[in-house]
Amino acid sequence: MIKGVVFDLDDTLISERLYVFSGFKEVAKKISCDYRIDENELFFNMKKLFEKDPKMIFNRLLDEHRLEYTMGDIKKLIKHYREHIPDIRLYDDANYMLKYLYNKKFKLGMITDGYENTQKNKIKVLGIEKFFDIIVITDEIGRDYWKPHKRPYEMVKEKLELAYEEMFYVGDNIEKDFITANQLGMKTVMICREDGIYKEADMDKKYLAKYKIQNLKELIGIMDMC
């Protein structure tokens, strides 16, 4: 019997793309102020660059506008991006399921990678701490403990006081979300979001989730089968 559900955050409960664009808006404001370039133009160009390739956006943006900069300038922009207060919200199905599971007295956990301040700002803005018995921001325990390291899963198990077999793990990133959860005996579920950044790749079976869903409400039916 399933007694607990452990969620990933980005592209599982919230849109990572929405967060990225929220950060771009704040960076556009800063660059606009520093270089006196139209803020909307900067934001549009960042989105365009992101769709082509998500790497080194700020470098490429400043290059495109023929602006002189140092690596120190880039680091300041990255810091501004990571520490901004994001304009984000839960997916509708995530909002529904958190309330549903909480009201049904399921034990809830979260394991999320990402820089500590970034993830804390997301969680604070969302106001979802009340739903969770434990939230593990892996960066708080060290970069070496980001998924797929097993320590975050152990921490959740210890706090929830459940066997691994009594828990679902729900995530989106096939490269790191399910391999450890599978090995530990958790029932794994991949949420396939249309706007998700991570897509399924040609991976070994050990990386695959046991179940695939397109809406978190489908968890209810899977729970009934388990």
Features:
single chain; 226 residues; alpha/beta; Rossmann fold; 2 domains; six-stranded parallel beta sheet
Structural class estimated from helices and strands: alpha/beta
By DSSP (H or I, 4+ residues per run), the number of helices equals 10
Report low-confidence residues grouped into runs of 5 or more.
none
The CATH topology of the largest domain corresponds to: Rossmann fold
Distance between the termini: 6 Å
Report the order of strands and helices. EHHHHHEHEHHEHEEH
Q: For the CA atoms, what is the radius of gyration?
A: 19 Å
**Annotation, overall tally of beta strands:** 6
Description:
The chain is α/β, with parallel strands linked by helices and 226 residues long. It has 2 domains: 4-15 and 88-225, HAD superfamily/HAD-like (Rossmann fold), CATH 3.40.50; 17-83. It is 46% helix and 12% strand. It contains 10 helices and 6 strands. The chain has helices spanning 16-35, 39-52, 57-64, 71-83, 92-103, 116-126, 138-141, 151-160, 179-184, 219-225, and strands spanning 4-7, 107-112, 134-137, 167-171, 187-191, 211-213. Strands 3-2-1-4-5-6 form a 6-stranded parallel beta sheet, with helices on both faces. Helix 1 crosses helix 4 (71-83). The longest helix is centred in the first third of the chain and has 20 residues, at 16-35. The chain is elongated.
